[in-house]
Write a structure and sequence with these properties.
Order of helices and strands: EHEHEHEHEHHEEEEEHEEEEEH
Radius of gyration: 20 Å
CATH architecture of the largest domain: 3-Layer(aba) Sandwich
Distance between the termini: 48 Å
Shape: elongated
Strand order of the largest sheet: 2-1-3-4-5
Largest sheet: 5 strands, parallel
Helix content: 25-40%
CATH topology of the largest domain: Rossmann fold
CATH class of the largest domain: Alpha Beta
Structural class: alpha/beta
Length: 260
């Protein structure tokens, strides 16, 4: 018996790892990779799928929003993928839903996929759509304190570690599993993905304008809109940084730069 699966994650390296690990399972056919929640929604509406490996934290439409949009009763089997051991993980456990912590371990993936395949073969599992709906209700009803963001980052610099004020960062560049901070004429490298670092920054002050770039809103001087596919921001120090269409929309929503 074969099972059709899609991978939903905004990080290319994360998608590649899942695809490589799933290739070892002859019963799993990865029919599509989705870079964001919007692509996932379109795929789920147009394609017959048995299993979704669904990242939770994605810019714009996150994993939970994908389920709300499609409807719990219409969703295929879901294995959540998360980088955060937060209250949400406890909720998954309570609802007997499968989840994976990043970086995904091969054995853990085999176990989760094996359980899903067993449920699909038997068409059992305790009504997954009810579990999903209950999970969403639990998360929505739970009140959490207002998130606060640090004012400084501790970063390595040669043989030292230095504190960098967050408001002095001009922009941040992705470099595989590293994030490169551009602070005036200085450059610092952190052993974090740009996605992980973005979650530590105040979204009112920093915007991810591209999968490989975050900008400090206070440093944005100009937007250049050459075509649908060619968008750029120019910072106050003169740097010109490529911006995606979704990044442009996000930038306009979170700043005083106007609307499209």
């Amino acid at each position: 018996m074969s099972f059709r699966a899609i991978i939903v994650d905004d990080e290319p390296l994360a998608r590649e790892r899942l695809r490589r690990l799933l290739a070892a399972d002859a019963e799993i056919e990865v029919v599509r990779e989705c870079r964001n929640g919007g692509e996932a929604i379109t795929t789920l509406r147009q394609t017959s799928v048995d299993l979704v490996l669904l990242d939770i934290e994605m810019p714009g439409i996150n994993g939970f929003a994908v389920i709300r949009e499609i409807g719990a009763e219409q969703m295929p089997a879901v294995i959540f993928v998360t980088a955060h051991d937060s209250y949400a993980v406890k909720a998954f456990e309570v609802q007997a839903l499968d989840y994976l912590m990043k970086p995904v371990e091969p054995q853990r993936l085999r176990e989760a996929v094996g359980r899903v395949k067993d449920r699909l073969r038997s068409r059992a599992g305790g009504a997954p759509e009810i579990q999903l709906r209950t999970l969403l209700e639990k998360l929505e009803s739970r009140t959490s304190p207002q998130k606060t963001y640090g004012e400084r980052l501790l970063v390595p610099h040669g043989i030292k570690q230095v504190f960098v004020r967050v408001d002095e960062i001009d922009w941040i560049e992705a470099a595989d599993y590293y994030a490169v901070l551009h602070v005036g004429s200085k450059i610092y490298t952190l052993r974090q993905t740009i996605k992980q670092l973005a979650q530590q920054l105040d979204p009112k002050r920093f915007v991810r304008i591209h999968r490989s770039a975050i900008v400090n809103l206070c440093r944005v001087k100009e937007i250049i809109h050459e075509s649908v596919a060619e968008n750029w921001v120019v910072l106050s120090a003169g740097q010109k940084i490529k911006m995606s269409k979704g990044g442009r929309r996000m930038l306009l929503q979170r700043s005083d730069l106007g609307r499209e």
